[in-house]
Amino acid sequence: MEYSEDDYLMISGIQHFKFCRRQWALIHIEQQWAENVHTVTGELMHKKVHDPTLREKRKDVIIARALPVSSRELGISGECDLVEFHKCEDGIKLHGHRGLYSIYPVEYKKGKPKLSEEDKLQLAAQAMCLEEMFSAQVPEGAIFYGETRRREAVEITEELRTEVKNMFHEMHEYYARKYTPKVKYSKSCNACSLKNICLPRLGKSVSVKSYIDQMLKEEEE
Description:
alpha/beta, 7 helices, 24% strand, 37% helix, seven-stranded mixed β-sheet, single chain
């Protein structure tokens, strides 16, 4: 199955979806958004690296920033923060450049490496888009973390690829149904920029219907 461009979802949405399916739905289906210190810091960092007009060549490496990517198979589109094309013996041809090149995507994040896999999933999705667009293999990429100022190499494993496919399939189903999952409160809700919109603690309260039924029952008694 291939998706039309009108049905494409944002690659970056996989981070929201992995963190919290309700958060993803509030942002991408209900168009709700709110800034906090984490989102602002991340946005400022991306502005520094994103310059689509800038192309660099350092010896045998060509660097492209804010590279638009998409996948008809996954039904997604977005931008890679940075993609390095390394000259090699077995790679792809690039228009206007001699030789063959391998592809190496680099995603920029403001914080430090996470125990969870949302950053790796976003990078894997970008790699899968690049593979489809260039008819090439992208076995590895990297995530640069602003707090540690270091790159972390990430192998694009079959496990990551399978999870990316499954998650975007689920996201497309939610989007088609305009479905927003119910609240599942956890400690991570405190760091979410949407907590004042989502109101996660209310999810543990009794429903309005249950409250009214209980009040009517008490009046009858």
